[in-house]
Amino acid sequence: MNQKELKELIEFLIEKDITEFELERGDVKVRVKRGTGHEAPLPDTRYFAVHSAAPAEAATFSAPAAPASAPPPKEAAPPREEGLHMVRSPIVGTYYESPSPGSPPFVKAGDAVEAGQVLCIVEAMKLMNEIESDAAGELVKILVTNGQPVEYGQELFALRPKK
User: Fold this and answer.
1) What is the pLDDT of residue 132?
2) How many CB atoms lie within 10 A of CB 84?
3) What was the pLDDT predicted at 112?
């Protein structure tokens, strides 16, 4: 489904005053839910959010903005150690720490890794994509959990590069 088809679908749903719609074509799933109240549910992470140039009230793809009077929420991010190299996901999919259920993980914190070594698998559209380290060093921290959905560019591992 391309962006034009999605825009036409959203416009049709607005025209017919349909508040919730779900479409599944092969491996593509689209779910559109229009909110009328102030509180909108968070999007289901099992579906890909597709943004279009349609009016903002056409569909709810993300959490509502905080009221203007409230200060922006502060997330307590853990302090990041200086000099760490981050290995990021090259694709959107589901993170798996081992080649199959029940088998040991590819790596664990404290392991020495080499450039090109397989660190995990990210499943996308039923394809298992091996994610390799792009640097050599010590694996300091695994930043995702087994079975977790990951986004493009999301940090997966923190490495302390070899000197």
Assistant:
1) 92
2) 16
3) 93
- pTM of the predicted structure, to 2 decimals: 0.51
Alpha-carbon distance of 86 to 134, in angstroms, equals: 9
The rounded distance, in Å, linking the Cα atoms of 85 and 143 is 13
- Is 84:159 a contact under the CB 8 Å cutoff? yes
Judge whether 135 and 85 are in contact, CB under 8 Å: yes
The helix/strand/coil state of 118 is: strand
Q: Dig out the tokens for 31 from the structure.
A: 């779910």
> Which residue matches tokens 């905080």?
66
Q: Which residue type sits at 72?
A: P
All residue ranges of the chain with pLDDT < 70 are 1, 35-81
Please give the radius of gyration of the chain, using alpha carbons only, rounded to the nearest integer: 20
pLDDT at 138: 93
Count of positions (residues) in the chain: 163
Give which of 106, 100, 103 is closest to 144, Cα–Cα.
106
For 81-114, write each residue's pLDDT tens digit.
678 999 999 999 999 999 988 899 999 999 999 9
